[in-house]
Specification:
The complex is a heterodimer of chains A (about 675) and B (about 575). Chain A has about 675 residues and is of the alpha+beta class. In chain A, about 25% of the residues lie in helices and about 30% in strands. Chain B has about 575 residues and is α/β, with parallel strands linked by helices. Classes of the chains: A alpha+beta (about 675), B alpha/beta (about 575). At the A-B interface, helix 16, helix 17 and strand 27 of A face helix 1, helix 3, helix 5, strand 1 and strand 2 of B.
């Protein structure tokens, strides 16, 4: 128990949220409901982020990790409380102390508790002391056999999967420990690691607890967060479909008893690993903050508000148990800007559209809006989407449908992958262990039947047709494509992945119905002239974001968004991105040939070659860092570096050219 | 059921309370809709006459449709294949690509050279379309038809294209690829079989007029853009020479006064096409080529870019308006006119099916009722209509004269709907001054300065054609329905008159009149006259702008009314309106 004096209790009038994105908006919403004024802090790169505009006032700071700047902002804005959200400074005991020292209420547990739980080894000791079962482990990174294989190397100061390695046998232990140390050092500034038993068929289940300053600790049931990629959660739900009531009860009691033993205050989460084969559970860690996935608990329990409880407790109030006894099924997915087909690497871009259907029984917690840029600077989570209901299967279906209806374009996301997970038989059966993605391997992207792809191309073509008419300021109200003589059919081509589609059409009298042919290739003028336009399209409505279209007898309204070179068509199962094949190409406007491009946005860590240097296949040319992971860019062929276009430390976007290569022969000719 | 307008549909999917989800559509509202009530129709689409008329009209349209396919085929499939094998596009494809996608294109005289030996269309395509948001005249030689050589028909179409550009102040875009003049035509030969309809070229000295007119456009500050897609030899070389902007295509454009054979004949110098007049030479050395394109598509891209920089401002940029479609069914336009032009036609029924909301404000509804005058709107453009409900008599001529003056007073364009056998003749009418009244109307028509558009739906005979602002009266556009007939008088009347003349001659000379021979002559003459007056013959001889499907009338007039507003629309001044 701490010896430091507890902060003074008082009402909160002005609340600063030391965070960004969806969690800042989430906290602002409750604060507003409670009549509390709000203050945002933001960095220059996020001047136009939605959360900045939603606060009553906003203070620019150099970095979200700059605790002094945050405290100074709170003082300047007259804030009497700080909510840290999750991530950034939320589990930084020094920051919590600095807040308290500035006579500002800290919405969270005592700094000493944060410090103790932040050290995984210390946390484990406290858990053991409280009688909570833990995994066999060792602080000695060579004691593999004592712990037993398979085991996990983890960074003491880490979290979120960084600095973590699975070790299958003793042969590779030293090597993987070294790798984990390097990553821990670069990620957390501390290379201490420890070993822990690894449970192959496991579930990740956590108990939401809430403690108050009067010594009460209660729980709000569990969340299962087993479905993870790169050791990070993407789907969470409550209740867990994989544990029985006895286990549930035992875990909850263990969590409460640990919370009580450490004098836990505010919202916290006690994470457990459940062995799916034996039903045993083991303590993993305590997260001394509000979790990303807290909406799962809120919606499962009938729409309670954990942030409200946090704020009430920070003001001296009491933790109160949920009124709902029988929880509903609630499922949350995390929509990430990332590429599931490319190891879930973060993606960036401009959100040309981000338009949710907002169907019934759906909660959106979103940090971005249409028109925002998604950069590498911050966590690539775009939004959390939560569905709830009495029936788990129906809830999963509703959530899948909501995701499918999301009209999004401009940034690659895991949306289609999430849908495929939610619709998989394994997920619906509750067979959700932590190896779900490797084991079930749901399709990583939207799987589209050929006729649906054709329809998407037709929709794109006729939305463009409508836009062309809308842009016609001279004859805009005259029928589309009117001809009193003969001109060739109009044709527009699109590319999706390895598919090219051409839609050719001729307007019928009135310009609202068309004779159409769809070809699965690009066509030259002779081929277009020879097409049999044997399908019919009727355009029943058009607006700048919608086309209402009947194609071969099937009528649907589709949302459509276009950029200069892409068009996004909303289909029943998701958004189809089509690259527009330009009609005219400016000669010489294409990039350098033989260019070596960045596969993802990131920072250049090292350039290993110079212009004129000969390289062999597989040789590392450039090292990129993205989301604190190193990526080696290796030569695909033997060749000679013609030109190096980047330097160490430079930020690069996806597809920017890093260097250009020529093959040996060409280089020889030039000399 | 009428096709609904796009903007009307828009509202069904755009609830006003969800603007962010559904986006917005540019607002297009009529500036000043007419307040007049809609025309009330008395047409019975189930009547035997209507059904027959419709059937006849569809048959005539099917004939035209086939002829348009012939025009599309240009110089034939083999020539097109050969053209494509040289990385070249047929002219219609070039035009299609230069136009803003999905915009309308009004082709001028697509059936030129009908009933002649030349390819349908005359080896040249011309029309009005939108390039980079600018209404332009677009014309191009068809290199598949005699290598784009000039024919009497293509020359007439070319002149017409320049005329449209000049009168309406439209930038002029040409795709040039022409072997030059058709050397087979000579004034010494009788070409009447190959070139009917008075289209023979009398003398070489006449042929240079288009160079004069081309450079006149420039003088009038109307931009001329010449895209040289292929050979542009001898006289043809002056097309780029006299244009404001030239685009040449790598390895395709050949521009020289004389090709290698003639040069060798004249001076003994041996050369090749590319050195003598290739795109490279002209872009880098002679300076004739302003823009150097990699290929045809690149040239078309450059052409669009040039038009975009013109920043072309219409004299009257009346914005498009969300006009109501006619309330009456436009499909019924097919059944209004009988092939037998003696059957009456109420022109109100036509007005009601082409004007916005079918609204028509009739002027002097109870006076001179053989001519129906009044105001309507077409795609938001207010126009004055003059349409025949019978022969032009004194009252009708008088009413028409005043109406033309009224429209000139308020700068409103006029649309003349022809179904006219002429001015009334006879003792009483002559005595009552039909010549004076008719002359008044012809005078008003001639000196009216607002744009005139003629729509010939039935007969257009004799001075009636003049009174109704026929082609010779400098109207901006003339369109025919397939039922149109244009002549000095009806075939029966001509044949009959000729018979009476012969009978008179015989009597004067005291010869016995051969009734049987005369009957034969009358029949033959009637047939020739009938054939010569048909719409297709007129259109083949390029004496109108096109035969149109009656259902397209509203669209075609909409295009024309927008087009004419590139030049100032200004009525005649000098006197007030004479109340005649």
């Amino acid at each position: 128990m701490s010896t430091t004096a507890r902060p003074r209790r008082r009402d909160i009038n002005v609340l600063l949220v030391a965070n960004r994105g969806e969690i800042a908006r989430r906290v602002f919403r409750t604060a507003r409901e409670m009549g509390i004024r709000t203050v945002a802090v933001y960095v220059a790169a996020e001047s136009d982020a939605p959360f900045v505009h939603e606060a009553d006032s906003a203070v620019r700071i150099p970095s979200y990790m700059d605790s002094a700047a945050v405290v100074a902002a709170a003082v300047a804005a007259g804030a009497d409380a700080i909510h840290p959200g999750y991530g950034f400074l939320s589990e930084n005991a020094d920051f919590a102390q600095a807040v308290i020292d500035a006579d500002i209420s800290w919405v969270g547990p005592h700094p000493d508790v944060i410090a103790a739980m932040g050290d995984k080894l210390e946390a484990k000791k406290r858990a053991e002391a409280a009688g909570v079962p833990t995994l066999p482990s060792s602080e000695d990174p060579t004691a593999g056999s004592a712990v037993g294989y398979p085991l996990l190397v983890k960074a003491s100061a880490g979290g979120g999967g960084k600095g973590m390695r699975v070790v299958d046998n003793a042969d590779v232990l030293d090597e993987l420990v070294a790798a984990a140390r390097r990553e821990a050092l670069s990620g957390f500034g501390n290379d201490t690691v420890f070993l822990e038993r690894y449970v192959p068929s496991a579930r990740h289940v956590e108990i939401q607890i809430m403690g108050d300053s009067h010594g009460t600790v209660i729980h709000y049931g569990e969340r299962e967060c087993s479905i993870q990629r790169r050791h990070q959660k993407i789907i969470e739900e409550s209740p867990s479909p994989g544990i029985d009531d006895a286990t549930r009860q035992a875990m909850a009691e263990a969590a409460v008893s640990l919370g009580q033993s450490i004098g836990y205050e505010s919202a916290g989460t006690v994470e457990f690993l459940v062995d799916d084969d034996t039903g045993e559970f083991f303590f993993l860690e305590v997260n001394t903050r509000l979790q990303v996935e807290h909406p799962v608990t809120e919606m499962a329990l009938g729409g309670i508000d954990l942030v409200r409880s946090q704020l009430e407790i920070a003001a001296g109030g009491r933790a109160a148990g949920p009124a709902v006894v029988q929880p509903m099924a609630a499922i949350e997915v995390r929509l990430y800007a990332e590429d599931p087909t490319s190891e879930f690497l973060p993606a960036t871009g401009h959100l040309h559209t981000f338009c949710a259907a907002d169907g019934p029984g759906i909660r959106w917690d979103s940090g971005v809006e249409q028109g925002n840029d998604v950069t590498v600077s911050f966590d690539p989570m775009l939004a959390k989407v939560t569905a709830w209901g009495a029936d788990r299967t129906e809830t999963a279906r509703r959530l899948a449908r909501e995701l499918e209806e999301l009209h999004i374009g401009g940034v690659v996301t895991n949306r289609d992958f999430l849908v495929n997970v939610l619709r998989s038989a394994e997920f619906l059966a509750g067979d959700t262990t932590t190896d779900f993605i490797e084991r079930v391997d749901p399709p990583r992207e939207l799987v589209l039947a050929p006729n649906e792809l054709q329809r998407a191309a037709v929709v794109a073509a006729f939305w463009l047709q409508g836009r062309n008419r809308d842009n016609d300021l001279k004859w805009g109200n005259l029928p589309s494509g009117f001809r009193n003589g003969r001109l060739p059919p109009s044709a527009v081509s699109f590319v999706r992945g390895s598919n090219t589609l051409t839609v050719a059409y001729k307007a019928q009298r009135g310009g609202l119905s068309f004779r159409v042919a769809v070809a699965s290739t690009w066509l030259d003028g002779a081929a277009i002239a020879g097409l049999d336009l044997d399908s019919t399209v009727r355009v029943l409505g058009w607006s700048s974001h919608i086309v209402d279209l009947e194609f071969n007898g099937m009528r649907r309204q589709h949302q459509v968004t276009a950029s200069a070179d892409h068009i996004w068509v909303q289909m029943p199962t998701g958004t189809v991105e089509l690259a527009l094949v330009p009609k005219f190409v400016v000669p010489g406007a294409t990039g350098p040939s033989g260019g070596f491009k960045a596969p993802m946005p990131g920072v250049v860590l090292d350039v290993r070659v110079r212009a004129g240097e000969s390289v062999t296949k597989g040789q590392t040319l450039v090292i990129l860092e993205a989301m604190k992971m190193e990526h080696h860019m290796n030569a695909a062929e033997d060749g000679v570096v013609a030109d190096v276009l980047v330097k160490t430390g430079q930020q690069v976007e996806k597809d920017s050219v890093l260097l250009t290569m020529v093959d040996d022969d060409e280089a020889g000719d030039g000399q | 059921m009428q096709p609904t307008g796009i903007s009307a549909m828009g509202s069904t999917i755009e609830p006003a309370d969800a603007p962010t989800r559904l986006g917005t559509r540019r607002l297009k509202r009529p500036a000043r809709p007419l307040l007049a009530p809609p025309v009330i129709s008395s047409v019975d689409p189930a009547s035997a006459a209507f059904v027959k008329n419709r059937q006849d009209m569809l048959e005539q349209l099917a004939v035209i449709d086939d002829l348009l396919d012939d025009a599309d085929a240009g110089g034939g499939e083999r020539a097109i294949t050969r053209l494509r094998s040289r990385d070249k596009m047929p002219i219609r494809e070039r035009i299609h690509h230069v136009l803003d996608p999905d915009t309308p294109f009004l082709e001028i005289s697509p059936l030129a050279a009908y009933a002649s030996d030349y390819a349908m269309g005359g080896g040249l395509v011309a029309g009005i379309g939108i390039i980079a948001g600018t209404e332009c005249v677009v014309m191009g030689n068809d290199p598949t038809a005699m290598a784009g050589a000039m024919t009497p028909y293509s020359i007439k179409k070319w002149m017409r294209a320049i005329e449209i550009s000049r009168e309406n102040r439209l930038p002029y875009v040409s795709f040039v690829e022409s072997a030059g003049g058709d050397l087979r035509i000579s004034p010494s030969k009788d070409d009447s079989s190959r070139v009917p309809g008075g289209m023979q070229v009398d003398h070489f000295a006449q042929t240079g007029r288009f160079f004069y007119e081309l450079i006149e456009l420039s003088k009038l500050r109307i931009p001329t853009i010449c895209v040289v897609m292929g050979s542009s030899t001898a006289g043809g070389a002056y097309q780029p020479g006299l244009s404001d902007y030239n685009i040449v295509v790598k390895e395709k454009s050949k521009i020289f006064l004389a090709g290698p054979p003639l040069v060798q004949m004249a001076t003994g110098e041996v050369s090749d096409d590319e050195t003598l007049g290739g795109a490279n030479m002209h872009a880098e050395i002679s300076g004739l080529g302003d823009y150097f394109a990699e290929d045809e598509m690149d040239a078309i891209r450059m052409c669009r870019e040039v038009v975009s920089h013109l920043d072309w401002r219409k004299a009257d940029p009346s914005p498009p308006t969300a006009a109501d479609e006619p309330v009456l069914d436009t499909e019924e336009l097919l059944g209004l006119v009988s092939r037998d032009l003696r059957q009456p036609l109420d022109v109100h029924e036509i007005y009601g099916r082409i004007v916005d909301g079918s609204r028509f404000e009739e002027y002097k509804a109870r006076y001179g009722t053989n001519l129906i005058c009044g105001w309507g709107q077409i795609h938001g453009h207010t126009v004055g209509f003059l349409g025949n409900n019978g022969v032009l008599d004194m009252d009708a001529a008088e009413k028409g004269t005043t109406f033309i003056q009224l429209c000139n007073q308020i700068d409103v364009p006029l649309i003349f709907v022809h179904n006219i056998t002429g001015f009334m003749v006879g003792k009483d009418y002559e005595a009552a001054g039909i010549i004076k009244k008719g002359s008044q109307m012809v005078n008003a028509v001639s000196n009216s300065t607002v744009p005139h558009i003629s729509l010939v739906v039935g007969g257009s005979y004799g001075a009636g054609n003049y009174g109704m602002s026929g082609r010779a009266f400098g109207n901006r556009f003339t369109f025919l329905w397939p039922t149109a007939k244009i002549a000095v008088m009806g075939p029966k009347q001509i044949a009959g008159v000729m018979s009476l003349v012969r009978r008179g001659q015989a009597a004067r000379q005291g010869i016995e009149f051969d009734e049987a021979a005369d009957a034969e002559l009358v029949a033959a003459s009637e047939e020739i006259q009938e054939r010569g007056s048909l719409a297709l013959y007129a259109s083949g001889a390029v004496t109108d702008d096109a035969i149109i499907d009656p259902r397209d009338t509203r669209t075609v007039l909409g295009i024309c009314l927008s087009t004419v507003r590139n030049a100032p629309v200004k009525g005649a001044e000098g006197y007030g309106v004479f109340r005649l």
